[in-house]
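Changelog-linked ticket: zinc ion example.
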Amino acid sequence: MSTLQPIRVTVWGEFRHEKNNPEVTAIYPDGIHEAIAAFLRPNADFSVRTAWLDQAENGLPQDLLDQTDVLVWWGHMAHREVSDEVVARAKSRVLEGMGLIALHSGHYAKIFKALMGTTCSLKWRESTDKERLWNIAPAHPITQGIGEYFEIPAEEMYGEPFGIPTPDELLFISWFTGGEVFRSGATWQRGHGRVFYFRPGHETYPTYYHPQVQQVITNAVRWARPTVCIPDACPNAAALEPLPEDPAAAVRPTQGFR
Ligand code: ZN
């Protein structure tokens, strides 16, 4: 893929808390997905659109997924309402090369759980903890511009144990005022696609306006862009070179073989 092609980003939001909870509406009047899209759009190398749960096919018809390089996912209260068919087609797209960025309560999204294959459970507490995210991979593309650590003044607590498979790369560890720690930024390769989980983003806090949170997600979009798109296939393959006419010759040990 040419580097001149913009990265086609789809920001998917559940878009329910923002309609049902005035506290959330006040922070994200156009939805969390639009707040995320708003800081991604100014990047000239991105082409950004949004989708949400209550649209037809949960906002993710096949043609839109086929034109998505990186899918950003925020969901919380209605994971079960995402159809299994939509989850299956999104998973197939990751396996063939699409990037997935799962945010906050997206740890329990069907698509994330399907790609992880584990419980993805964790400890949680809605309170007024401060979160300090330690950057433990300062050379990684996703942590560029972040510094040694950054803080979010108030966030929901997520604590270990986090039921994920051991990450390919662990980028952030969070500490919370209550004493817990959490693997808050982690990557996995799944098929030909890249997956990044990033913890912050509880709906009652203005976390997606935080400059370093925005920087991490922006960096992650660039990191997660596909390098290939290889649809699944399981072909019967013709030989590349002539095969021996005598089948026994194919299994006869070569001279010197012991
Ligand atoms: Zn939350």
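Closing comment: Example verified and attached. The mean pLDDT is 95. Residues 104-105, 156, 202 surround zinc ion (CB under 6 Å).
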